[in-house]
Write a structure and sequence with these properties.
Layout: H1 44-51, H2 61-69, H3 73-91, H4 96-132
Helix pairs in contact: 3-4
The structure holds zinc ion.
Zinc ion binds next to loops.
Length: about 130
């Protein structure tokens, strides 16, 4: 997901002020009212508010926040854990290997939920066909 990703037409003043490792300016859009993007904002309170969906960054973030809010509980749980892992990774409190394992398990969970949703849709369609027959 490209949360806060900058678009070509995004004004320079809306960009994150953090320098990258290469010494260039970060290309992400700054969070509303902040100087930094989600990845670079050092304020824990701001990061917590972003994680909870209270504030969003970039033009696509409102859509993302709505999409997250509509997730079924199981997928929301996966999303919340991964978002927390991203913060923990950046803070250095989560080992990269554990994050990689989490991502693999999360993909497997999503695949199972996707299969379950597909089976449910097929069952609904079969019921519909039987009712019409
Ligand atoms: Zn940044």
């Amino acid at each position: 997901m490209t949360r806060g990703a900058i678009r070509p037409e995004t004004p320079e003043r809306d960009r994150c002020e953090s320098p990258t490792k290469r010494g260039e300016r970060c290309r992400m859009a700054a969070l509303p009212g902040r100087k930094y993007c989600l990845s670079h904002d050092p304020d824990p309170a701001t990061r917590a508010r972003v994680r909870d969906g209270q504030i969003t960054g970039g033009r696509n973030s409102a859509r993302l926040a709505r999409a997250v809010a509509k997730l079924p509980p199981d997928l929301r749980h996966v999303y919340d854990r991964l978002a927390q892992a991203l913060d923990d990774l950046q803070a250095g409190t989560l080992e990269p290997g554990r994050a990689t394992a989490m991502a693999a398990v999360a993909r497997a969970i999503v695949a199972v939920l996707d299969a379950a949703a597909s089976l449910e849709r097929i069952a609904d369609l079969e019921d519909l066909l039987k009712a019409k027959a």
